[in-house]
Amino acid sequence: MSQNASSPAPSRAGLADVLPRWLVPNLSGIHLVAIFIALLLIGLLLVPVAQVMVVAFQDPATGAATLQNFIDFFSTALFRESFWNSFYVSAMSVVVATVIALPLAYITTRFHFSGSILIQSLGFIPLIMPPFVGAVAMQLIFGRNGSVNLLLRDHFGFDIPFMEGLNGVILVQSIHYFPFILINLSTSLRNIDRSMEEAAQNLGSHGLRLFKRIVFPLAMPGYIAGAALVFIKVFDDLGTPLLLNVNNMLAPQAFLRISSIGISDPMGYVISVILVVFSILSLWTSFLFMRGKDYATVQKGGGGMAKRVLKPAEKAVAYGVVIFILLLVLSPHIGLLLLSFGTIWSYAPLPDAYTLQNYVTMWEGSKTFILNTVLYAGIAATLDVIIGTAIAYIVLRTNIFGRKALDYLATAALAVPGVVLGIGYLRTFHGIDVPFADKPMASWWVIIALALMIRRLPYALRACTAALQQVSHALEEAAESLGATKRRTIQKIVVPLMTGGILAGFVTSFATAAVELSATIMLVSSNNDAPLAYGIYLFMQTPSGRGAGAALGIVAVIVVAVGTIASQIIIERDKKLKSSGGEH
Amino acid sequence: MKKTLFATIAATALLASGALAEGKVTVITSFPDSMTGPIEAAFEAAHPQYDLEVLNKKTSAGVKYIQETAGDNTSDIFWASAPDAFEVLKSDGLLAGVTIRSEGIPERIGAYPLNDPDGKYFGFAGAGYGIMWNERYLKANGLEPAREWQDLAKAEYHGHVGMSAPSRSGTTHLTVETLLQGEGWDDGWAQWKRIAGNFASVTERSFGVPDGVNTGNFGLGIVIDFFGFSSKASGFPVDFAYPTVTALVPANVGVVSDAPNEAGAVAFIEYLLTPEGQSVLLDPAIMRLPVNPATYANAPEGFPNPFEDSTIGATVEFDVDKSGARYNLVNSMFDVMITYRLDDLRAAVGAIQAAEAALADSDNAEAKAMIDEAWALIDANPIDEAQSLDPEFAGIFTKKRKKATDEVGARQAEVEQSWDAMVVANYAKARELAEKAAGM
Amino acid sequence: MKKAGIKIENLHLSFGDTEVLKGVNLDIKPGEFFAFLGPSGSGKSTLLRAIAGFGPTPSGRIMIGDRDVVGLDPWKRNVGMVFQSYALWPHMSVRDNVGFGLKERKVPSKEIGTKVDAALDLVGLSHLADRMPNQLSGGQQQRIALARTVVVEPEVLLLDEPLSNLDASLRVHMRRELLRLQRQLGLTTIFVTHDQEEANTTCDRMAVLDRGIIQQVGSPQTLYDRPENLFVANFLGTANILEGKIESDGPERRFVTATGDSLTLPGETTGEGTNIVLRPQNISITRSAGRDSLPGKVRHSEFLGSQIRYLVAAGGAEMVVDQSHQAGQQRIQTGEEVHLQVNTISAVVL
From C49, which residue of chain A is nearest by alpha-carbon distance? Predict the structure, then answer.
């Protein structure tokens, strides 16, 4: 754990030798990397967020420091109600997302079920739909006068208020974010030692009781990790409630108050602070809960979870459940697809007629959006995995002072709502000019990529940390004992062994960055710089643009889905290669 | 491999940063692509030396953007509907006074002065609020289109109406303020609350309303005319009508202070007002009322001409100063009484409507008195008109204090909380009364 | 406790296309301590898991008592199994782990308490009842796993390589402990191991498996002294195997090696094969030839403490010969010509 702190710095004669000694403390390369990352996080995360938050602590009249705004927050009935609504919606979204994810995770990991990989990939798709696009499509399918309710009313004389008020938010959010639970839970389930389950069966347990008492508790760490993510994302999410015209929640309240014309109300900023603090608190709680519960995964002499062969009747039920869930979670995509091929879709279960015109219109106006998206999300995800790998290495393999803080800081980005980051960037970078060009940083496209990078860093960091945890320390020591330097070891041994995890991190970051809107909507300073999600947003602002917007949405989904499935295959292959030696 | 990547990034960077053309004119606008696109194309064809760079933002976000970036401004033009947004920018000193040469443009459109008297912003098109409806929706629900604002308050439209919040959309604010000025402060608010009692939802974006009507999510919407015209032109089964009490207001354009390319900005505005620039407004996807009366000669049949048809938008003499004085206050009141408490309001109004229906054939005076009392509770306003125009009180809701010594007595959160407490209690009480009356 | 015998008849089992058990027949008596011994991949664990009900459903019969359990769900078998990894559930305390099976059997909670205490007593770990499994040492985990299994009073106890995750000194201690418990409870017990010393020291009888087939069943001593085939002979201890043929001269039989040396076979020796198995300790090195001796040359020698092991080229093979070591004794040098005096009473012809 401690070798590299003392490992000699590269002995190249350079600037360092010319400068006075006190200016160049004895730092190894890895120290410099750590300092660089720390500065990056401070500059791109802490400072901008602080710029926004400071308003919450100022008296609006005098600018003096005060906590009065927080007292106002808690004495305002509307805010208390909004807080409760946000909490309720987040908690219920976790419940509904669990109901969706659990059967998918269980069936695909626990049984020999053809199409498991396909299901796992399809299960990832909802995450890569911009949430507001999902909300539009869900309205068309499940809304008051959406396809389902029109049909129900025609044939059965009743309808179901899927999308009314908070219900709508819960439904859209669960469908959008359940993949977080699916992914984490599946991994956890796969890692449960077969004998854990068999021991229980041997002692007379089976079926649901077995699942409840043994399997699920053992998968708990993964489940909690996923559920915490869902909770926080829903708590912070702005687009969905706004699109569904639900105002009595915290994030929309913050946004409405911050972005209203000329309003000085500090409450928007107070709410932002509360959002951030509460999210960090939730993260922290979930960490506390998981501490000491990081159950040793696959043990010596065991194997992964035993896969069972389904009996024909069970198989029919399982396929029924899986198909029903997939239909539900892909309904936004189905709606979007219909919209993209439809002419007019108004108060009818299906569009009036079908056309390709929307795609033509979309293609004429969107090439820049698509290119920009690939560029921004590509830069963001690349930087994310590089920084993620570096932080993971620093945290797990070195004893650099403050390494944990680095980890926490990067993870804290999860708790910063996109709007807050966007406004913070505008404030921080507007006064700084881009080198060699006479324009402020805030309106430079690179800042969009950087914002995306910060927003998605936590995903990549988790993936890289998990990957590094699986690389045995002995493998590095072996390389070092054969004369490889620290740098060569990282290059030739550590990073190649982490490939699967790094790739997974890249895909998650890329896919979710590609459809992000909340931060970018504040930062796009020219339509030429706009990414895809922004393009869809623009299209969807006009009566004639809905179809084209939907077509662009479909393109986004396809681009990201192809990438995801391709990397899934690469990861699987990589996994097989690595485990082929140790097959039991 | 690395080199190629770098080259690609560098090349794209250049591409994305746009041609650093001498004549780049940056426009911040709330208008959709479908409107800015044809105008941009026409302008660049007429003035090839300029390159219009359009940046689409919601009105409120656009104002925010210009305010936030004022220290190092990169925008040349602000281009949006709501005069109030321009008023806000103007009062912050963020609009430049420029001279625009144009011919044949009248002083007023409807009852509204076309240009800012201080020459900071200029009207280039007219627009008025009205009611848009979905034919299929109304047919399926057995409804007739509503033609007047008060019609929307009728019980038959309960749950069928959509509107945007004035705090979210400058033009919606204009509609709200028009009614307040046209009907008087108390009656105006009472009417808004009775209409709002029929709302299906208050949308976050102004486009949410035509969108909701187009998809049939709700049946009728309070929208600005061009949304209605362009939706119809796109083929949706919808139609639009102006009620009697409405204001025709100009959509505006102004030059931002310290504009990097002021000459280009002026050229664009002058072009907008030429006969060629005006005729682009008749594009089926735009459908705005030109401010140059001569342009109407080319308009399609049935297109309203406010310069000939004096019934459109002439009823209300719109008082810009009054509107500006209480801009944020009105928005805040609407949000507190309607947007954030829509469920309570809708339930209360629904209960009263049900009670009225149940008692239609009875002459139970006690019950009728209870219903009147319930309506009075709905109608009650937390503040009177005089207070709304008190600069000190309205100041609670406005932005920057120039000096630290500019003290105000109360905080917005405090005031809103007291309003909220009042309306929540009133709505609950009204509902209780109505339910009691219905049972009599 | 109820003791049940196990009778396995013509058991076949495949993983996909690979047949892992190829017709196993076995009869284990009630109360017997039985071991499955074999190299990895021999099918011993698969056979054990098939008895417990895990893995693919085999064909054939597995009788526990008078019940055929083939196709029966694991939780309906009342067979107790201790896993190689112990499989203690990390989210439950020791007490909850041990009480789990009783709870599943809907035993009243008061009774569960007494039984759990008794079981923990039995393994001597009552004081750890409220610990979590990850706070226990390997040996303690092993004993908890055992307590968890016996507390439900299974008809049969299955142990899958129970000692392989322990360190050497603990292993010896634990195997005695296992034997003590087995004797105390009188449970029919099957013990899977690849370590013959473990099997030898604990079990009453054992079955040696190779490639899915039972090679031989018997007491450890029988199997060692009288292997029925070369695999068993080789697998149990060190064996010198010389090729050759049997020549009979009236009542006297001799084994003539490939090099033409001949060994007299005593009357007890049966078998008609072309190989003779000689254990290293039944050969002694002499300087001069005698009856039943083979000439050879020392290739290598190793000091093992109580013994010196010589590798001697003789009889057409490299033979292992162990000589007990006494202080002051001269070690025979590599390259020396010697004679190997064979005690043919122990010889087995295969």
Answer: A198
